[in-house]
Amino acid sequence: MTFQDFAASFGLILGPIEIGRWVSVPTVDHPHKRNGRYKFLGNRGWVQNWAQMMEPQMWKGESSEAGDYRRIAARAEAERKFAAERAARKAAWILHQAKRETHPYLTKKGFPHELGPVWNGLLCIPMRLSGRLVGCQLITDQGEKRFLKGQVTKGASLTFDAGGVDVFCEGFATGLSVRAALKRIQVRYRLHVCFSARNMQHIASGFERGFIVADHDAHGAGELAARLTGHPYWISPTPGEDFNDFQHRVGLFSSAQSLRTHLPLQLGETAPQSA
Question: How many Cβ atoms sit within 10 Å of the Cβ of residue 121?
Fold first, then answer.
């Protein structure tokens, strides 16, 4: 039995195999979440479906191919590159077909007049890495989000560049709210929408200076990511809120003033880290 067949027997949905680390993947019972994980080392591996298994199950290769670590790794890397290139081409095609329109998701987030690329009813947010389009995030009317299969997400972002301080956040709607607040207080910005807490940490950590607008999610991932960057950050005092939620609750003026009290940290001044 191949590793792929072994993983499938526990309901894991695998893409191109990655070598040497735990990889989170969707499962048959939760196809829109990453409720499974695997680790593959060539001649052995482990899989776990969180909905069914308390501990990972181990696989041992039986064929000569399983022990050929380098060949398997090379093939997996080739598959990964092929999938990433195909996703980038698909993103380019989607964005070429898309029309700039308003979208129900943006209306719900407080931006009824904001225009964005819309294709087949989906809001399509371009994602670039080192200036190159690598994929896009697709958002439904109800706010369900997904990336293109096989696309590169690590290090990819959307940037609103007004030639100012580097500001990092997770979601697109959060980015729109941060942009509105910064415009209100007349602060120039280079705003990076990073799409996840982990990716925000990865991107922001590569900058000598920066400012983080973190989500106050229940599990604390947003604030942890902000702290790990070493940069000053803003976070709502209310659990479950991101900056978009905060702005909805207190209004544009108050949310902008809250950011203003934190931005002096970017210049090395002392200010509290609470909204």
Answer: 11
Residue 51 near residue 25, CB atoms below 8 Å: no
H or E segment and range at residue 69: helix 69-97
Rounded Cα distance, 181 and 253, in Å:
7
149, exposed or middle or buried, with CB in 10 Å at 0-12, 13-18, 19+?
exposed
Q: Tens-of-pLDDT digits for all 275 residues of the chain?
A: 889 999 999 999 998 888 888 999 999 988 888 889 999 988 889 999 988 888 889 998 865 554 566 677 777 788 889 999 999 999 999 999 999 999 999 999 999 999 999 999 999 999 999 999 999 999 999 999 999 988 999 999 999 998 899 999 999 999 999 999 999 999 999 999 999 998 999 999 999 999 999 999 988 889 999 999 999 999 999 999 999 999 999 999 999 999 998 886 444 333 333 34
Are the C-beta atoms of 143 and 137 separated by less than 8 Å? no
Residues 6 or more apart whose CB falls under 8 angstroms from that of 124 comprise 94, 95, 98, 116, 117, 118, 136, 137, 138, 139
Residues 222 and 170: their CA atoms lie apart, in Å, by 8
Separation between Cα atoms, residue 196 and residue 212, nearest integer Å: 13
Cα torsion for 40, 206, 136, 96, to the nearest 10°? Answer: -130
For residue 97, the number of C-alpha atoms closer than 13 Å in the C-beta half-sphere is: 12
